[in-house]
Structures are given as C-alpha cells and as structure tokens.
Amino acid sequence: MTEEMKIAVIEPDPDRARDIIDALKEGGWNDVVVLGDVTGLARKLAALDPDLVLIDLANPSRDALEQVSVASEAQSRPVAMFVDRSDDEMTQAAVAAGLSAYVVGELQPDRIKPVLQTAIARFQMMSQMRNELEAAKQALADRKTVDRAKGMIMRAKGVGEEEAYALLRKTAMSQNRKVIEVAQALLTASDLLT
Amino acid sequence: MSTTRLNCGYVPLVDSAPLIVAQELNFAADEGLSLNLLRQPSWAALRDLLALGHLDVAHMLAPMPIAMSLGLSGPMARIDALMVLSVNGTVIGVSNEMADAMRAKGWPGGFAAPQETAGPLLSALDRPLRVGVPFPYSMHRLLFEYWIGHAGLVDPSTLHIITTPPPLMADAVASNEIDVFCVGEPWGSVAVGNDVGELILPGAAIWAHAPEKVLAARHAWVEDNPSVVGALMRAVARAAAWLDTPKNRPLAIEILARSAHLDLPHAALDHALMGRFATQFGAAPVDVPGFLRFHDRAANFPWRSQAAWIGAEIARLAGINRDHAIDMAQRAMRPDCYRRHLGPIGVDMPGASAKIEGALTHPMAVASTRGEMILGPDAFFDGETFDFSPSE
To answer: What are the boundaries of the signal sequence (chain B) (predicted)?
Structure first.
C-alpha cells in the first residue's frame, strides 16, 4: 500500500484491543490507534480524524460516532458510511460479527474491504470465545442452583440425591418447564418463607 | 392458532413500555404474535439492525425513520413509521453550576417557563453551550434547537451539540463534558438523584404534543406482510391504551423494572410514569400532568403534519432541500396503515390525516369517525403554528 490508512479502534478491554491491533498489523496496517476510554468520544475522534473507525456493535458509545458522521457532513465532506453503502454483503458480514465500521472521508471500497475482512474474522473469533465463556459461566451457576434445590428436597423429604433430582425432573416435565426453572422457583419460594 | 415470531428491537427507556406490555400481558399473543424483545445498546445499532433485516420492527426515535429514508443516517433504507408509540416524555436539564449561573442571570427556577428560561440559559456562560443529546436525529435535539432558535437570542449553529448515550448522560454532566442535557426518562432523574444536575424544562413545554417514539419497520416488509402489520398494530394499540389507564401504571412499573426489560429500580421509573418530578436534588416533587402519553388524545395517530414538521427541521439541520425532506417525511408516516388496521377494532379516527401543528392551546373536540375526539393542546412555546401544503 502506498498510502497509510489511519484506523481507530474503540475497545475498552485491553486484551481484545491488543488482539485487534495484532490482527491489523499482520494485515499490514500499522497506523492503528486504540481508544479505551469512551468519554468525549466525538471530540477525540474529531482530533484524530481517522480514515476508519472500528467499534463493537454492542458499545453504547456507537451513537457518539454519529456525531462524527453528521459533523463531517456539515463540512460538506463525503458522508460517513456504515461500512460501505455499496456493498451489502460486506455490511451483513460485519453486522453478523458484531462489528461496526464507519468510513469518514474519501476511501476506495477496495481499500476498506481487506481491513474489514481481517477485523471481521478477529471479531467473530472473539465473540465466539466470549459466548462460550458466558455459556460456561451460566452452566456453572445453573448447576449450583440445581444442587441447592436438590439438597432442599433431600432434607425436606428425607430422600437420596438421585430421587431428589428425579422429582425435580418429573415436575419440570409435567409443567413443560426446564429443571433450572423449577429449581429456581423452589429456592425463591423457600427464601420467601424463611 | 400458529404464532408469528417478530424480532423486535428497543432501547431501554421508559417509553419502550408499549412493546414490552404488548408481549408481557399477552396482547401480542391474542393476535397470534410473539415479540422477541431484543434490547439494543445504542440507537445506531438498532437502526442498522432494522435496516439490514435482523430486526423486523423497532421502537425508534420519531425523526429516525425520516432521517433514514432521506439517507442521512446509516445505511440508506426506506423505513415506515406505522404509529406513534409515545408523545412527550423528555426533559431538559443543566449542570448544578449552570443552574447557579442561570439564577444569577435572573432565572426564576421552576419547570414550565420556556420564555423566561431561554435568556438566562444562553447568557449563563461566556462561551458556547455544550449540549448533550442522545442522537443527532432525535426529538430531543429538534426541540432544543427549535426552542433556542425561536427564542431569537442566538444562532443555534453556535451550540456544541454532543451525542451522549442516555445511560452516560449523568456521568457526562458530572465530568464536565456537557453543560446542558436533553434526555428521556429515567436518565434526567438519575442526574438529579446523583446531585449533578437540575431539570429546567420538560420537552412538552416547547411543543405540547411532540411525537417522541414511533413503531418502525422496513417499508418493503410493511407492504409484504399486511396481516402481521395489522396484528402488531392492534396489539400495540391495546397495550398503549392499557398503559394510559392510571390504575395500571403501578403494574406497568412492576413489569418494566424486571431485569429482562429495563433492569432499573422502581424509583427510577416512578417519575415518568406517575408524572411527578424532583427538579433538584432533595427538592419536593412537582406534578407534570401528561408528561408522557401513550394513547389518549389520539397520541398514537401518525399525523402527516408531524412528519412534515420533523422533515422541515431535519432539512434545516442537514442543509438539504426543504420540500424534498417534507415530501419524504410524509411518505414515511403511515396514517393509511393506522386507519386500515385500527379502524375495525373501534379506535377513533380523526377526519383528516394532517392538521395545523401548534394551533391548539386548549383541548378541543374535533370531528372523527365515532363522533368527536378530544385533541390537543399541541401548541409551540412561542405560539407559532406550522402549516404546509400537503403533497396529495
């Protein structure tokens, strides 16, 4: 590439930010700035004047990016775009990956595309990891809840662990609910009564 | 009856209530719908997901479908506003330092005096005001700029408008990023509760009947799915009517406060839904009747004249052709859908789909399909009226 493209990455988590920088550098983009603290985002971006901004779809400060797009419009510069208005497929892929990219200024789509592709791959991998971590955490929490409910049934009815679980399962099936929901309801009820 | 599942986006604000209530109290289920309520972290995320078809319908800032249809916000997409979900419900506030400076300039205080408040607001600081709004194309911004512009004291282009996500608004005041904030509840009351800001005006004091949020969907989707659109509009209209029945408000607070929805303490929701506000930390609350309206006084009717007003204001902000903006804005508003789908269930319909905005200073009975309908007031603070030539 003859001309360096300035990329701003908005990512509060330093580990994720580092991963994204690594990925972008591997792809040959060296002019990457990370903004971790999102206060005064519009002002900071205006000062940086990046060619491309990468931000997580779930970041509430995304709305502040709109400021940059509107401001640049007022100065009759090319409109800030969501990814690239001409490329639906690319836009879909970016959204599915949880990625937003705003292009301010005149940029050729063929230059944006490889950057985004790299970033999309990275974001996808990380969002998958994040989802797996969430799922693991949830499974652990669920197991604790079920164990507590089992213990309560064992004490109340003087039955063994297997029988207590069978009772939970039977109740869940007959009410068309999940075991975890029945266990949760039992704990809530007992909290109220004690 | 088979159930149609709709991906339904909302931003966690008190006025997302009609969609949440439609789902929770089974108004949607009665129409064969299941609303998959998807909470969005920002308006831009909600907008893009709707434009790209990941969401079927959304709770949206009233100016957004119009800005999107004009290609001014995000991916160019033709978006329809099927009905108004809520009228009014925003507040304007200032930092505690600003409030003190305004008092020094003769501000009488209180929560209902736009004419007497504009001067002290503009002269309080000897530098341009930094104004936090939730989105560049929001009723908050349009109302604020209309107020300041029509008070005739300053050119609105000298203001620094700073987009700030509502949940971060109180923090932005505390860290001296902004002097003024325009925001939907509960976030104004949060700033007061944290003792960083003071409320100076409800949005309704600027325009007494401002459409705040709308039910939005892609135009092509609306055209392709008339029966689903009808079912959805009926469910939402019933939820809105339920919400405007005073005895239901405590239960509404109960439902909205749940973690699956707004995940906020009851106290944060009380102000908007009960219409009682403490404008200052520790002050006794004052009543603001009709602070937030979901259904009464034809609140849900998507007037073409409201759309035209929004189109004209957006044209001024964005520097685009006014006639074109007004024309596109009127196409985005769908009173035709409203009449077709809600007429048969007995919702009262006005005789015309446009009116002179700002003409009603008192409630007034007008001709309607079921006899008469009480409208208004819809006055602007400066007594101006907005008329335009309909395109049809």
So the answer is: none
The string of pLDDT tens digits covering residues B60-114 is 999 999 999 998 887 778 999 999 999 999 999 999 999 999 999 999 988 989 9
Contacting residues of A for B319, CB less than 8 Å apart: 74
* Residue A161 forms part of a structural domain: yes
pLDDT in tens, B302-324: 999 999 999 999 999 888 999 99
In 3-state terms chain A splits into helix, strand, coil percentages (rounded to 5) of 60, 10, 25
Average pLDDT over chain A, rounded to an integer: 79
Domain that holds residue A181: 133-193
Chain A: give the shortest CA distance to residue B76, in Å. 7
The ipTM of this complex is 0.79
A40, A69, A82 ranked by CB distance to B48: nearest: A82
Whether A12 and A103 map to the same domain: the answer is yes
CATH of the domain at A24: 3.40.50.2300
Q: Cα-atom radius of gyration of chain B, to the nearest Å?
A: 20
Class of domain B90-209: alpha beta
Retrieve residue A82's tokens: 């969501």
Please give the share of chain B, as a percent, with pLDDT higher than 70.
Answer: 98
Residue A119 lies in a domain: no
| Residues of chain A found within 8 Å of residue B135, distances taken between Cβ atoms | 63, 66
Measured between CA atoms, the residue of chain A closest to residue B44 is A63
Same domain? For A103 and A138 the reply is no
